[in-house]
Write a structure and sequence with these properties.
Elements: H1 3-24, H2 30-43, H3 46-52, E1 60-61, E2 72-76, H4 106-110, H5 115-131, E3 136-138, H6 161-176, E4 181-187, E5 199-202, H7 205-212, H8 214-221, E6 227-230, E7 234-235, E8 238-239, H9 244-254, E9 260-263, H10 271-276, H11 305-312, H12 318-334, H13 347-360, E10 362-366, E11 379-383, H14 408-415, E12 420-424, H15 450-460, E13 466-472, H16 495-505, E14 510-514, E15 529-532, H17 540-548, E16 580-583, E17 586-590, H18 599-605, E18 622-624, E19 628-629, E20 637-646, E21 652-662, E22 673-682, E23 687-695, E24 701-703, E25 708-710, E26 714-723, E27 726-735
Bound molecules: alpha-D-glucopyranose (GLC).
């Protein structure tokens, strides 16, 4: 080979060699990484830049083989690593090696109010994603539970942005400690599934900044999220994926974020908006994000050939292009920890899933101490379709194929190997899974009539030591499922009547509600005990049995309010929800309730909910002493201390909540707002002093006219609470 060509080869390969060398180090410093990005930017051709900023397959985008930059692989979460799909299809590739650990849904993680557990969750699921060679796990979701009917409440972390934000931060940090990027979603205002691709959200700036953005802001500023997903809906008549106010002005401008915005799948609709609106990486174009598929030449993505043509004509700025490319390279490089391979389906991961699951279960009622169940039970009758229904599959994009799933019925049998455990269906819902899956399908069809099913259940409960009814929702369409909202706040399949009939025969019945959203419970007074049991993944039955038997003392607290009836809530008009089709094909949803979402609404209206935000019982009791403040006047920070005693007979954990209340607010404000929480474990008789620090910003309200946060002088109260409706101690302070 001639000398000059050797030199040329060396020059061309040099960056790749340099790149390879630096990739082998486990984690390179930000500075070194930025230098590498600069070096690569010098090398990239226009075609290579274009290739980097849009998908090449259903879940991957291209790298730059010539420079040794690997392609970028994404996959759904957030509850586990989605099974492999075919290259350009939604349908499963039917691999036999991608059955994962299925973790509890995120609304149940939020119900643990345990930041350490959220970190464990993120690290654990991140190890699985790393093992499956994914650079990006598409989660967590932190949209707000604005209506109990939203089909994806189960994937999100409740009605309060502070709880959602503070619980997502450790999940993100745990996940990213594996070199797997979080992709926090769906930024922003995607708080319903109804017509999610065609709904233009109208929300005032105060509600935007105080309710709908804070969890995302914490995720990027405290959590250090490496990517965010732009949502399907419109805001200010512009698709969010093209919305420079949300993506450029706020996210990258005000918040100074250096990560990459990945579009939701099919959320991009034009080149100009995608080019100039702050989007960095286009996925899933020409699909509906669920099952509609376009056999798609990826070159016809909006940021592919059409964008290249526009750039060559000088229609679009090189600066916007280079910013996208830099952010995508940064995302790629941040995930290139070369010496680490994660782990998959380990006993530790299933144990993590069980621990997280049992910690999120919320004890709502326990009349006469019917729970925990006695160990010497001889006959246990388990009722309800949800006792046997697989729930890991379903719900759409968060659906998983798991190595195994312990049903509630199996969990009871495993906990009582010597007892007679009788199962009766009691009701029949939809016996098959509806949705776009070709794995984990099941058919629970029971030939008996509804009448017969109930009669058989009533006959079975005679002489049982315990009767446990597993009901609730499921992951079918129009239940807890992406792409559609529920159309009824009450339980489906006539469960209200079935539960009432069975409770009439057995008033000591235990009702376990499996759902990811609030539901009506008109039978609350008829049953002895009620648990909110969520969807808990692979170890569902074991996690539920751990709590029912007292092996685990329940410590969950609700991340959202359960109103008695939907009408008690803030949504009063069709224009608020689901919105009105003012022009053909486009719905306008008006968030007229403003900041009064969840407990903020029920407090303001003084409407008593069935179960309050932050509520949850224990098998023990806790007493709170007097609250004391580090100062009577707010400086930069304030610490509230309160002694908490376990006054019962078993060890347990209490979530101490701190709400702040302005005494004579200058403007209309919520009665109180959550600004701190700490979970504390106490042996019987033990007292610990819990301290919660909050800073001046916690007192701020957003002044939309001035477009700034304002802390009003005046007097405030620090409310120390066991729930948003159970204030146990308070202390006053002033702001000068
Ligand atoms: C879906 C969902 C999003 C998911 C993505 C990929 O439509 O909205 O949460 O991560 O597309 O499946």
């Amino acid at each position: 080979m001639k000398k000059s060509s050797t030199l040329r080869v060396l020059l061309v390969c040099l960056p790749a060699l340099f790149l390879l060398a630096s990739c082998c180090s486990s984690v390179f410093s930000d500075e070194a990484m930025e230098k590498k990005i600069d070096a690569v930017m010098e090398q990239l051709t226009l075609d290579e830049k274009i290739a980097l900023i849009h998908a090449q397959s259903k879940f991957s985008s291209a790298g730059v083989p010539r420079l040794g930059i690997p392609e970028l692989w994404t996959d759904d979460g957030p509850h586990g690593v989605r099974p492999e799909t075919l290259w350009d299809q939604w349908t499963s590739a039917l691999w036999t090696s991608d059955s994962c650990t299925a973790y509890p849904v995120l609304s149940s993680l939020a119900a643990t109010w345990d930041k350490d557990l959220a970190r464990l969750y993120g690290r654990s699921v991140g190890e699985e994603a790393r093992y499956r060679k994914k650079n990006v796990l598409l989660g967590p979701g932190v949209n707000i539970c604005r209506t109990p009917l939203c089909g994806r409440n189960f994937e999100y972390m409740g009605e309060d942005p502070f709880l959602a934000g503070k619980m997502s931060v450790p999940y993100i940090q745990g996940l990213q400690s594996n070199g797997v990027a979080a992709c926090v979603k769906h930024y922003a205002l995607n708080d319903q599934e109804f017509e999610r691709h065609h709904t233009n959200v109208h929300v005032d700036d105060r509600a935007l900044y105080e309710i709908y953005l804070p969890a995302f802001k914490m995720a990027v500023q405290e959590g250090g999220a490496w990517s965010l997903m732009s949502s399907y809906n419109l805001y200010q008549n512009q698709y969010v994926s093209h919305n420079s106010r949300l993506l450029k002005d706020i996210l990258k401008g005000e918040w100074g974020w250096d990560g990459a915005v990945i579009s939701d799948w099919g959320a991009v609709h034009e080149t100009k908006g995608a080019a100039e609106g702050g989007l960095d990486l286009e996925f899933g174009s020409h699909t509906n994000g669920v099952d509609k598929n376009t056999a798609n030449a990826y070159d016809y993505y909006y940021l592919a050939l059409p964008y290249k043509a526009g750039l060559l004509e000088g229609k679009y700025s090189q600066e916007d292009l280079n910013d996208k490319v830099r952010r995508v390279l940064r995302l790629n490089f941040r995930t290139l920890k070369g010496d680490y391979n994660g782990s998959f389906c380990s006993p530790e991961h299933f144990a993590d899933s069980r621990k997280i699951g049992s910690s999120g279960i919320v004890l709502l009622k326990n009349a006469g101490g019917v729970l925990p169940m006695r160990a010497d039970a001889r006959k246990i009758v388990v009722l309800g379709e949800n006792a046997i229904r697989p729930m890991v599959v379903g719900g759409s994009s968060s659906s998983l194929k798991t190595k195994y799933e312990i049903s509630p019925l199996q969990g009871i049998k495993d906990a009582y190997p010597d007892a007679e455990v009788v199962y009766q269906r009691a009701y029949q819902g939809e016996p098959k899974l509806t949705g776009n899956y070709n794995y984990g399908l099941y058919d629970l069809t029971d030939p008996r009539s509804d009448k017969q099913l109930l009669a058989d259940a009533l006959a079975a409960v005679e002489g049982a030591d315990y009767v446990i009814f597993f009901g609730g929702l499921n992951k079918n369409k129009y239940q807890d499922c992406e792409g559609r909202d529920r159309t009824d706040y009450h339980l489906p399949y006539g469960q209200d009547g079935v539960i009432a009939a069975l409770a009439a025969a057995r008033p000591d019945m235990i009702y376990v509600n499996l759902s990811g959203s609030p539901v009506a419970m008109p039978f609350t007074d008829d049953v002895a005990a009620i648990l909110q049991g969520w969807y808990l993944g692979s170890e569902t039955g074991h996690a539920l049995a751990d709590v029912l038997t007292g092996k685990v003392n329940p410590s969950g607290k609700l991340p959202f309010t359960f109103p008695r009836e939907l009408a008690d809530g803030p949504i009063k008009t069709e224009r608020q929800y689901p919105g009105i089709e003012e022009t053909k094909g486009t719905w306008q949803a008006y968030y007229d309730e403003g900041i009064y979402v969840g407990y903020r609404w029920y407090d303001k209206q003084d409407v008593t909910p069935l179960w309050a935000f932050g509520y949850g019982l224990s098998y023990t009791t806790f007493e709170y002493g007097k609250a004391s403040l580090s100062s009577g006047t707010m400086g930069k920070q304030m610490t509230v201390k309160v002694p908490v005693t376990n006054t019962g007979t078993v060890a347990g954990a209490e979530v101490v909540q701190l709400y702040v209340s302005a005494c004579e607010p200058a403007v209309d404000r919520p009665v109180k707002e959550l600004k701190g929480f700490e979970k504390v474990w106490l042996e019987p008789g033990q007292t610990k002093t819990v301290s919660i620090t909050f800073d001046r910003d916690a007192l701020a309200r957003f002044d939309a006219d001035a477009h700034q946060w304002v802390v009003d002088a005046g007097s405030y109260k620090a409310l120390v609470a066991a729930s948003s409706r159970d204030i146990r101690a308070e202390a006053s302070f002033r702001v000068k």
